Amino acid sequence: MPNLNLDALLNPAAIAVVGASPSNSNGVGSRALHQLRRFAGRPIFMVHPRANPDDDPMSVVSVDALPESIDLLIVAVPAAHVVDVIRAGATKGIPAALIFTSGFAEGGAEGAAAQQELREISAQTGMLINGPNTIGFLNLHERLLATFYLPADCELPTPGPVAFVSQSGALATYIDDLARDRGINAGWLVTTGNESVVRLTDVLEYLVERPEVRVLAGTSEGLTDVDAFVRVAAKAAELGKPFVFVKAGSSPAGMTAVMSHTASISGADEVFDAVCQQYGVLRAASLEEALDWVAMLQPGRSAGSGRVALLSGSGGAGVLMADAADAAGLEVLPTPEQDRKVIDELIPSFGSSANPIDMTAQAIASGVESYQRILDAIFASDAFDSVVIASGLRGAQSIDVAHAIAASYASTTKTLAVGWYSLNAESREVLVRAGIPTYPDMSRAVNAVAALRRFEDERSSVTPEPATRVDKARRVRALAILSEADVSTALTEEQSKSLLSLYEIPVVQERGVASVDDAVAMAEQMASYPVVVKVLSAELPHKSDVGGVKVGLADADAVRRAGEEILTAVAQHRPDAVIDGLLVQQMAPPGVELVFGAHRDPVFGPTVTVGLGGVLVEVIAEVALRKAPLTIEQARAAITGLSGGRLVSHARGVDRNQVDELAGVLVRVGDLMVEVDQISEIDINPVIVSAAGPLVADALIVRGTE
Amino acid sequence: MPNLNLDALLNPAAIAVVGASPSNSNGVGSRALHQLRRFAGRPIFMVHPRANPDDDPMSVVSVDALPESIDLLIVAVPAAHVVDVIRAGATKGIPAALIFTSGFAEGGAEGAAAQQELREISAQTGMLINGPNTIGFLNLHERLLATFYLPADCELPTPGPVAFVSQSGALATYIDDLARDRGINAGWLVTTGNESVVRLTDVLEYLVERPEVRVLAGTSEGLTDVDAFVRVAAKAAELGKPFVFVKAGSSPAGMTAVMSHTASISGADEVFDAVCQQYGVLRAASLEEALDWVAMLQPGRSAGSGRVALLSGSGGAGVLMADAADAAGLEVLPTPEQDRKVIDELIPSFGSSANPIDMTAQAIASGVESYQRILDAIFASDAFDSVVIASGLRGAQSIDVAHAIAASYASTTKTLAVGWYSLNAESREVLVRAGIPTYPDMSRAVNAVAALRRFEDERSSVTPEPATRVDKARRVRALAILSEADVSTALTEEQSKSLLSLYEIPVVQERGVASVDDAVAMAEQMASYPVVVKVLSAELPHKSDVGGVKVGLADADAVRRAGEEILTAVAQHRPDAVIDGLLVQQMAPPGVELVFGAHRDPVFGPTVTVGLGGVLVEVIAEVALRKAPLTIEQARAAITGLSGGRLVSHARGVDRNQVDELAGVLVRVGDLMVEVDQISEIDINPVIVSAAGPLVADALIVRGTE
After folding, report:
1. Do B619 and A315 make contact, defined as CB atoms within 8 angstroms?
2. What is the dotted CATH code of the domain comprising B509-586?
3. pLDDT higher than 60, residue B87
4. Fold of B301-461
5. CATH number for the domain formed by residue range(s) B592-703
6. Domain A472-586's class?
7. Phi and psi at residue B41, to the nearest 5°
């Protein structure tokens, strides 16, 4: 699916506002009209029945009376009139509309019906509709303030590289306020409200490729088009643009709230998390954390290989920062000798030039020149990729220190974060103007550098979205196997394994036979001793208990003996049971047991899982989940990430070759789910991994109910 | 060990400052003198060689010249003179000293030697010494500002129920500043600096029992007396006083920094974490988080059973709060019908009275009366124990809303937290005066309520520190077994199992015998078929490979046959090997495998661990660690907490009776470590848990090197 071209909506050449009143300058329409006319530098019309061209030459009495050049119709009329206005605009051929009015799907059945009408008008005419129940957008690079929430006399905010997208208008104003406090320059802020037509993901797809956007950040309560989200994430990774996301409704309580609030379903949170991992999206737990990260990503500098220098005037602060750095995966390496010499000359003997670097309060008090020289020396060191400063200064001295930090930062291309809890407005202004990310807590400053590092690290391993590889011939054969299954939704073990074999997933060979002679012949044919022989009977679920299982049979004689003993024992224990024959089964060599699975999420579509197998491991219940289809690299990352990497690093785990083979299995299980959407669930337990490679011992495939 | 009585140090009747200069009012001594004289209302002397009683009637020229009534000597002279001043004070019988001067153990070998001299003076005279290198303390209930970091003209801070204790002076000023911003009223702020004599834990032990202290919070880089820390934590839990702690140096990088910075060792962070879990200490990851929690704990209200109402003017904010509440273990239950009716009359139809409650921006704009009535209705509901409000208001309206919230809060005893990112100074003042905890982020407000809830929850399950139960007779027998072991530090399997048996830990019976006949006799004597027979030979580490192991032997005949076959097979495979005989071993019934361990931490002393066993489980490597000795309740909590509770809840896990038996084993492994401190390490792998109870199959005990 191609992106929607949102130019008419988000960068319109001419705009008309319906619902701005000549007599009430405080309505949302009037406020938006005011802001647009202050800055936009393009025709902004007003539509109002009492419009008087003598008072306002850019006003008309109806949508019909507008000139042909209008790209965007902004609608702020009462809910009862919205559909008529939109219809008039669509009829006139206006390509886009923005509807501020609320009281649609979020307000009950009647509103939902009206919203459906809007959707239909769009479907018939191609009109792009943002809203209803949206607070509009800012496109600051084009000086467009298509919103009503800013103060009437606000200055035009400085446009920057960050694009924020939010479904909720309230959260958007929260983000905008907070971002401004933090020195984050948003070039874009787009809200999507009820998403009757244009969705959050449409906006993200439009923005991710725009050259002026270098950092993407969004929040949403329900993602309705996860494929589009995957496209955005993959594109952002490809272009090297960090993408920060806060998904509201990640918890059961949150999801319930979303459903009652927006009437939209959200898919399983674990699947969303998997998508973020697969495509390098930085998922933040709160808006505060998201803004902490965006502030760090905005400068576009690098955290290199994560070697961080920690500078403060107190040993205790240094230790706390070192703890935070360690926990977040940054490296706190010792300052090299030659750099220590430079620093030691600038600090008292009871300070420390090791890392963390304790310049002491005394060195700070002794003058700002030495502060800057110390910081210059740290930036100049080859041993560090970034610097985090903790400061608790107040008063007159702090502005001098802020200037020193700003000057040092201007002379380097390395990354800097400042944790300065007592930062006053004047000093903050100095740091913000210099483009330096500041934090009210030193641990948060460290964590933000770690987020940048994580982005850079993951970016290198994010693979593009896999091309959808539907193999039609294979699909036909799969459907044939499915159709053999009787009315029950679960396939038999044999059918399940046939399907897996079709997708080149190695399964234990096995075959039901009618007699002991046939069992011997089948075992010879398999040519893969040792084998297992089991009694085949629907009436004997616990075969071992009745002497119905013999394992480790090394040759034809052993198979014959086992078959005879089984039939005798079963006849003795359960003379009543109907015996269907014998099952001859290849015996998997001993090895590490894993479990694979697949599931179809109602919103996010097919997913696959891989986890450790075995009895106690079920208790531990650790699995990695990924969205299908997936690339071999994504599959490998899922497997090597199990148990904190120990599945691969541990002597009793699996080796690199086995990881590659297992990754192939995971990819192909995903392909099966993608190609055959009649399957709702796959449970493969266990897959036994030995030197001979992975082998599926048991598998169950479930068809969806149609 | 009894607490140190720190009255003379922290609540002295009369004080003398040495090192305040009549001519330099900016020195640290002079600044402290100034603050003490402003507020303390008790005699504060100055000691200075050029003191002139005409200028200052409370000044003397030497320590000798001081009156007998002095309790506390505050020392701010240069490092070279400190020891002499302290000696003079001690000689005079002054019971306590506070040393601001730095340049001791933190500044090299010479300073360390001087610090050792201070310690010796204290040991000889009983003088309590706080410091050197400390910034002193505030005891605001007694109007004592024994410090130099506050501005000369500061007002006397309002004393409150919170006591802060910090080793680092810099972190203490950070805490003090931040606490004041957050409306936290510290009654105490004590720093301990280099801890030559008085340690952080001494101060905590002194403060925890004081009636005016209701919340305890501390931070330290290295805990040198973990037993005292355990006593404080257990006492705090007993008295219902929350205890929040930030341990700097929790990571390898942080620990390295601590060592270079304070030259003190810190114990393994996992052990500290275990102590916090055992004794209900709220361990925060950063100072910001600690202060978030303290602000919530200060009012002394309850979070009840954790049912939280979430109120905002936006659906999106409600969802984000619900996510945070869910993740933090709070309950977001629906508003009951009768309460919804009250709320519905006060909000527009597109709002929501469900929980999260979206009152809408419109309801907020419509007037502050309805705001207060909505909040009153929520507080009045039986369905909620606490309320979290998210607000993004700015401007004139916010102060009215703050007053409405304050009025509603005054009329209830329930808990409230306000997340208000755009809170202005005036509105903040209203909320702070009302005693309401405020947060710059709504998720942080929710998390703080969860911390209160966690404290209340854990308080109920914290057991007092176990009485040390040294059984002297048992200890003598244990030492006898240890002494049998030869020079190697590892005991044999048999010796290890004997020791465990002595502590009533059930071990697999086994005995080495010389011949097949003896093996049969031994098996008959054990009377616990099936048994295992193994070849006994130090030269055959891989017994199975040479046919040296036979399992599942059901009777005497089987044992005889097995013994003969083993000897034949071994003679065939390894004719060269010296055979010591045969091992007859009880065969544990199949069951869940666990691993137990014990270790002696250089700082924290004996610890025990319990985790899941089995091959793949080693890969997963999850263990619970606890400090020994431990109570049966603490042991039970450690076991039931494994794998997120699934070891107990899962069908393939263990049942309640088995948990009790396993908890007993854990307690007794701890007792063994406590009683016999010659043991450095115990490794019990596996313990097999079947219907017959736990049974140790293999064990290894290691003696410490002396």
Report:
1. no
2. 3.30.1490.20
3. yes
4. Rossmann fold (3.40.50)
5. 3.30.470.20
6. alpha beta
7. 65, 35
**The CATH homologous superfamily of the domain defined by A308-461:** Succinyl-CoA synthetase domains (3.40.50.261)
The pair of three-digit structure tokens given for residue B98, joined into one six-digit string? 């506070």
Nearest 5°: the CA angle B369, B371, B376 is 95
> What is the pLDDT at residue A255?
76
Q: Is the distance from CB of A38 to CB of A67 less than 8 angstroms?
A: no
Residues in chain A: 706
* Strand, helix or coil for residue A69: coil
Whole-prediction pTM value?
Answer: 0.86
Q: Considering chain A, what percentage of its residues have pLDDT values greater than 90? A: 61
Residues of A in contact with B251 (CB under 8 A): 322-323, 325-327
Fold type of domain B157-298: Rossmann fold (3.40.50)
Look up residue B515 and give its two tokens. Answer: 């011949």
Is residue B213 predicted with pLDDT exceeding 80?
Answer: yes
Compute the nearest-CA separation of B462 from chain A (Å): 26
CA distance A483 to chain B (A): 36
- Set of chain A residues whose Cβ sits within 8 Å of the Cβ of B319: 221, 248-249, 254, 257-258, 261
Cβ atoms of B138 and B144 within 8 Å: the answer is: yes
A170 in contact with B at a CB cutoff of 8 Å?
yes
- In this complex, do B315 and A253 lie within 8 Å of one another by their Cβ atoms? no
- Alpha carbon of A617: minimum distance to chain B alpha carbons (Å): 7
Residue B26 CA, chain-centre distance (Å), reads 39
**Closest residue in A to B642 (Cα–Cα):** A620
CATH of range A1-135; options 3.40.50.2000, 3.40.640.10, 3.40.50.2300, 3.40.50.720: 3.40.50.720
Cβ neighbours of residue A233 under 8 Å, at least 6 residues apart? A243, A275, A276, A279, A280, A281
Cis, bond preceding B53 (omega within 30 deg of 0): no
pLDDT score of B468 more than 80: no
Residue pLDDT, tens place only, A539-592: 776 777 788 888 888 889 989 999 999 999 899 888 888 888 998 988 888 888
Q: Which residues contact B429 (CB under 8 A, 6 or more apart)?
A: none
The SS3 of residue B562 is helix
A312 CB neighbours in chain B (<8 A) are: 170
pLDDT digits (tens, 9 = 90+) for B8-37: 999 999 999 999 988 888 899 999 999 999
Task: Quickly tell me which residue has 């398999």 as its tokens.
Answer: A526
Identity of the amino acid at A550: K
- Domain positions in chain B: 1-133, 157-298, 301-461, 509-586, 592-703
Four-residue CA torsion sign, A649, A654, A660, A665: negative
* Contact between B318 and A619 using a beta-carbon 8 Å cutoff: no
Can you state the percent helix, strand and coil of chain B, rounding each to 5? Answer: 45, 20, 35
Tokens for B635, please give them: 């042991």
- For residue B383, what are its two tokens? 């369905």
Task: Between A155 and B396, name the one with better pLDDT.
Answer: A155
> Are the Cβ atoms of A102 and B622 closer than 8 angstroms?
no
